[in-house]
Design a protein that fits this description.
With about 325 residues, this protein is α/β, with parallel strands linked by helices. It has a single domain, classed as 3-Layer(aba) Sandwich (Rossmann fold). About 40% of the residues lie in helices and about 15% in strands. It has a seven-stranded parallel β-sheet with strand order 3-2-1-4-5-7-8, sandwiched between helices. The chain has a two-stranded parallel sheet with strand order 6-9. The longest helix is centred in the N-terminal third of the chain and has 21 residues. The protein is globular. It starts with a strand and ends in a 15-residue tail after the last helix.
């Protein structure tokens, strides 16, 4: 399959560009920034450029975006231009070119304020049925882009699957209190319980989405590590998360104690990937238990792909993920 990958210079874009050829696909990398994995340098808002890039393409993975950190450095109009107008241009040109599958990389940040439960309430069980309440222009534009994907499926019969990915960036946490209180690896390991995904698994989700798009037609899917928690744990997670983790993963205490690590005292949300595993046949390999096993064996808990891609920062955003 000939696949156009937008955002090929970014974290996920590079990971896709490294991985798709191994699966027998021909890839064309598109990005506004030159890189070793970018074949076409230009903007997705440039229709002529996009049309030229779309020639002969059979599928599109649209990972290019202005990210959450860019809220501090870019105007709201820039977010609309790239995340909404750029997506519209890609959808229109993909339809004209007869593309057979369009996979849009979205984000769990679309849920926004819906992720935070009121005081005294249980943690939020986050499935695709939770209605987004965006908290910033990033979330607003990603929700709008998702709506465009649905529109083109309904009106033009373009198979579109939306993958709402949770955190997979390697940069330091965006919350200063977390950076001060926890080693970076400690915080990221904790997040595998409820809000993080390994980039290798994000890539595999995109691969199965490309394979299933024409059959499914349209769908939204949360892409996050499989949580050990259930709905019955939600109330206790808001008051004593370590007790819940200790009950479900008893060996975590010893592994953490060796490193002087600690669990977050409370957890306010839990991302649920069941629909992606069921509908797409996605089988994520990395979760909290696997991270513990690798740590206990003295191994790096990250995938080889994550180590190869490394930390990139965010173009024109100051390079570090430091914005709430």
């Amino acid at each position: 399959m000939i696949i156009l990958v937008t955002g090929s210079a970014g974290h996920l874009g590079e990971a896709l560009m490294r991985s798709l050829p191994r699966e027998g696909h021909q890839v064309i990398g598109l990005d506004a920034m030159p890189s070793a994995f970018t074949h076409e340098v230009g903007s997705i808002t440039d229709r002529t450029f996009v049309r030229d890039c779309m020639r002969g393409v059979q599928a599109v993975v649209h990972a290019a975006t202005l990210h959450k950190p860019h809220v501090a450095t870019h105007s709201r109009q820039a977010f609309v231009d790239v995340n909404v107008s750029g997506t519209l241009t890609l959808l229109e040109e993909a339809t004209s070119a007869g593309v057979r599958a369009f996979v849009f990389t979205s984000t769990t940040s679309t849920f926004g304020h819906a992720l935070t439960p009121p005081g005294g309430a249980p943690a939020t069980w986050v499935t695709e049925d939770v209605v987004p309440v965006p908290r910033n222009i990033y979330g607003v534009t990603k929700v709008a882009a998702e709506g465009l994907c649905e529109l083109f499926h309904l009106n033009a019969a373009l198979p579109c699957l939306i993958l709402r990915t949770s955190r997979f960036f390697p940069e330091p946490d965006d919350r200063p209190e977390t950076r001060l209180a926890y080693e970076d690896a400690n915080a990221k390991a904790n997040e595998f319980l409820y809000r993080r995904v390994e980039i290798e698994d994000v890539v595999s989700a995109h691969l199965v989405a490309l394979e299933r798009a024409s059959t499914i037609g349209f769908g939204r899917y949360i892409i996050s590590a499989t949580t050990p928690f259930s709905r019955e744990d939600l109330a206790e997670l808001r008051v004593d998360a370590p007790a819940v983790v200790r009950r479900l993963v008893p060996d975590y205490d010893a592994v953490y104690a060796e490193r002087g690590w600690s669990m977050f005292p409370v957890i306010e949300r839990v991302y649920v990937n069941e629909r992606a595993r069921t509908d797409l046949g996605w089988s994520p390999r990395y979760d909290f238990r696997r991270a513990l096993e690798r740590l206990a064996a003295g191994e790096d808990w990250r995938s080889e792909l994550a180590r190869s891609v490394g930390a990139k920062g965010y173009a024109a955003s100051g390079g570090v993920y430091t914005l709430r």
